Amino acid sequence: MSRIGRAPIAVPPNVQVEIGEQNYVKVRGPRGELARQLPPAMALERADASIAVRRPNDAREHRALHGLTRTLLANMVAGVTTGFTKVLELYGVGYRVQQQEGKLVFQLGYSHPIEKVLLSGIKVLGIETFTPTQANGWFSARLTLEGIDKEQLGQFAAEIRRLRRPDPYKGKGVRYRGEVVRRKAGKAGKAGKK
Q1: Given a cut of 60, is residue 192 above it in pLDDT?
Q2: Is 176 left (phi over 0), alpha (psi -120 to 50) or beta?
Q3: Same domain, 40 and 113
Q4: Quick check: helix, strand or coil at residue 125?
Q5: pTM score, two decimals?
Q6: 74 shares its domain with 88
């Protein structure tokens, strides 16, 4: 049995879970509502304050879907109760981000600003800008995003990161908070030649 798949999902009292035909699940909570089609082969069993996911047999496909189904449902419950956040950091002199009328405008060292339209389920919690002395010359801005759908939020953050991937030589670019970029050495012996 999958250790992740067999763990029951605790459902708080302020969350309503509706399991429809073919495992179409709707979850309502204080932060909003999510709906998703889960794999129909999995059995969702409702107890008093929890939901358990059972697989019909030990076939390879069912073993693969067991933990996935449980995680998707747990993320829906967590999203409507507490929500999810993603923090992106902009490394580079002059790199900035601003929020304007439902979109984000990035200055990432290109000759033009880049606009990214905010999706309906995602909110900007904060934009912090730092001066070069506060950030040791590199770390120039921090963008905090929030949403109830973990998949949608992660995809949106990945699209923002793709606008300017972290450079392995100088370290400039957009990265997640806590992401470690493996740095490469430049050309050896370049400084000694004239």
Answers
A1: no
A2: beta
A3: no
A4: strand
A5: 0.86
A6: no
